[in-house]
Design brief:
This protein is α/β, with parallel strands linked by helices and about 475 residues long. It is about 50% helix and about 15% strand. The chain has three domains: about 1-305, HUPs (Rossmann fold), CATH 3.40.50.620; about 305-405, Up-down Bundle (Four Helix Bundle (Hemerythrin (Met), subunit A)); about 420-465.
């Protein structure tokens, strides 16, 4: 398996520190609002990477943090007359609702919170101060970037370039304009904790370094997030972590491309975003997951309603293919395989191999999805009620196996209510008795109820619209 490592700017063979286990840290949301579809992209993409690594036999220790103390959290809490913790608890709950809709593997995800690790953060900062990489000034503590020769190695810029390209606020407490804050001194109306430098709270960058080290070790296999986090967030994580431990922080840095709205990065600061919750009122969130995976994770996506509808249509095709295979498994019989049947089994295995080859190539989910479409198309073109059941089941099992890696096609078909079942049965009887006028009337009645009937050689099939 090859992954594109932002640190080296090339695809590299993936070799974890341990043969059987992968440690993985993904930067999670700041929990002051609902997540938008741009936030959702890394959560979905790296959830699939985790699923695929597990599919290949690895145990994956997967952390996605919650930033529950920062300026945005405090502003929201003050606006609502609530505590920062109340705001955090609310929006962590809302995140988990959206995560379920997006089919993220929450049951095997750890969600450390910054405020639950204040003591660990203080100890980490003390270590940096003691080693000469950080300094205190009027209750604040800053990291001294001039102590590092390789600061900027992730973003591939030197300090002078970073200064000219960044909006650096004038701060008389800093020794250098690019020094970044590790601990902020107490201000009125803000939560604070005791520390050796006085009451205050942690800066943003420090929490990820601390929690990754605490739960995953000094060096982790994969650190992932959106490409907008490369600088300053991930750059600063590397600086503070490697300065303290003297070891590489992460062996592989993965970054997904942005989701844009009319070619502009979607963000809350620009107010050009669509929340996942808003979208869920009209579309099943599995469609959004499928849309995200339909493009390569490192490429930008220009979000639009048309793109969502296109994704819905594609997902429907796969669900219909799955449903057709389920129907054939009900009507096909066990029988001895002919040479042609054996060739079909080989073809099914080839689609599986095609999927794995795509996913091994830097998590190429679009080509992986193409393999699923081709499997479904092959089955629709070559299978009939005469096909041996074992061949149909093989195709079905492979489709389910591979779609589970992508986290799609897992919704159970909803049952028709009794009234609709009776109408379908009544129409079948009318057709048997050649009462086509009544059969057409029932079909129209079902259509009004959102049920479309399809008369096929294998029997009547239905779908909701």
């Amino acid at each position: 398996m090859k992954l594109y490592n932002t640190l080296t700017r090339k695809k590299e063979d993936f070799k974890p520190i341990r043969e059987d286990k992968v440690t993985m840290y993904v930067c999670g949301p700041t929990v002051y609002n609902y997540i938008h579809v741009g936030n959702a992209r890394p959560f979905v993409v790296f959830d699939v990477l985790r699923r695929y690594l597990e599919y290949k036999g690895y145990e994956v220790d997967y952390l996605l943090n919650f930033t529950d103390i920062d300026d945005k959290m405090i502003k929201r809490a003050n606006e609502e007359g609530k505590t920062v913790k109340e705001v955090a608890d609310r929006f962590i709950g809302e995140y988990l609702i959206d995560a379920k809709g997006l089919n993220l593997k929450e049951e095997t995800t750890r969600h450390p919170r910054a405020t639950e690790h204040i003591d660990d953060i203080i100890e980490f900062i003390k270590g940096l101060v003691d080693k000469g990489y950080a300094y205190s000034a009027n209750g604040d503590v800053y990291f001294d970037v001039t102590k590092l020769e390789d600061y900027g190695k992730l973003s591939k810029k030197n300090i002078e370039e970073l200064i000219s390209g960044a909006r650096v606020q004038i701060n008389e407490n800093k020794r250098h304009p690019m020094d970044f804050v590790l601990w902020k001194s107490e201000k009125p109306g803000e939560p604070s904790w005791d520390s050796p430098w006085g009451k205050g709270r942690p800066g943003w960058h420090i929490e990820c370094s601390v929690m990754a080290r605490k739960y995953l070790g000094d060096t982790i296999d994969i650190h992932a997030g959106g490409e907008d986090l490369q600088f300053p967030h991930h750059e600063n994580e590397i600086a503070q972590s490697e300065s303290l431990t003297g070891k590489p922080f992460a062996n592989y840095w993965l970054h997904n491309g942005m989701i844009n709205n009319q070619n502009v990065k979607m963000s809350k600061s620009k107010n050009n975003f669509f929340t996942v919750r808003e979208i869920s009122k009209e579309f099943d969130l599995e469609i959004i997951r499928f849309l995200i995976l339909s493009g390569h994770y490192r490429k930008p996506i220009n979000f639009s309603r048309d793109l969502v509808i296109q994704a819905k249509n594609g997902l429907d095709r796969l669900y219909n293919g799955k449903k057709n295979l389920e129907h054939l498994m009900d009507v096909c019989e066990d029988k001895e395989l002919t040479d042609n049947d054996k060739d079909m089994l080989k073809a099914i295995e080839q689609f599986k191999a095609q999927f794995i080859e795509s996913m091994d190539d830097d998590l190429n989910t679009p080509d992986g999805i193409t393999a699923l479409f081709e499997l479904v198309k092959y089955a629709n073109s070559n299978f009939s009620h005469e096909t041996p059941k074992s061949v149909v089941k093989k195709a079905y099992d492979v489709l389910v196996e591979l779609s589970n890696v992508l986290g799609i096609l897992s919704k159970q078909e909803e049952l028709l209510d009794e009234e609709i079942m009776e109408l379908i049965e009544k129409r079948n009887e009318a057709r048997k008795n050649k009462n086509y006028e009544l059969a057409d009337k029932i079909r129209d009645e079902l259509k009004e109820k959102g049920i479309i009937l399809q008369d096929t050689p294998q029997g009547v099939k239905w779908k909701r619209v």
